[in-house]
Amino acid sequence: MYQKKAPCTIALAAVNIIVFLILSFQGMTEDAGFMLEHGAMYTPDIIYAGKYYELFTCMFLHYGFEHLMNNMLALVLLGWQLEHELGRVKYVLLYLLSGLAGNLLSLSVDLHTEEYAVSAGASGAIFGIIGALLYIAVRSHGRVGSVSGRGILFMMALTLYHGFTSGGVDNSAHIGGALAGFVLAVILYRRNRNPGQQPREEVW
């Protein structure tokens, strides 16, 4: 499964880890105030202070080592497969747009409920990867490499269940990311019709 290289997946994971290490030397990454100062997402900041960049920067911040490792493990395991299916440029585009879509849905829900929290994490973008793999599995008769469509659905359902039954989880970002990833895969994915042909890679 991992014979081919996936440089964009490795680069995205490396950026997340480097950012975490830098912030860890500066303060407590589990402190909401500290995270807010360094680019975490807070709806009042975006709406009333025009800090729109938080919709993007929050995707590269994590609340503590466990949060980081859980997300990076999922990113490497799932992103590796999707990068081979989409190619590098489309993969990075889907990753970033899914994360942005998840954050926008989270912002909308915050405005509706008026319950604001400082949000951070790559899970919206990672759910975009899951949504994209689900679509590709449907197009590929139930499998994407060694990943099955049923396995993807089970993983998504289990993660969402954990999120809704636990505190402090941005479920809106997860749902928004998954939906965006699915839709973007519909637009970006082109099935390889020749079984003997290797997936095409795009250089950037």
Question: Can you tell me about this structure?
Answer:
68% of the residues lie in helices and 2% in strands. With 204 residues, the chain is mainly α. A two-stranded antiparallel sheet has the order 1-2. The longest helix is centred in the middle third of the chain and has 26 residues, at 88-113. It starts with 6 loop residues before the first helix and ends in a 16-residue tail after the last helix.
Describe this protein with a few key phrases.
mainly alpha; two-stranded antiparallel ribbon; 68% helix; 2% strand
**Strands ordered across the widest β-sheet:** 1-2
Supply Rg.
Answer: 17 Å
Number of helices: 9
Low-confidence stretches: 194-204
Strand content: under 5%
**Overall pLDDT level:** 87
Q: Please summarize the sheet with the most strands.
A: 2 strands, antiparallel
Shape: globular
Number of strands: 2
How far apart the termini lie comes to 23 Å
H/E element sequence: HHHHHHHEEHH
Helix and strand composition category: mainly alpha
Helix content class: 55-70%
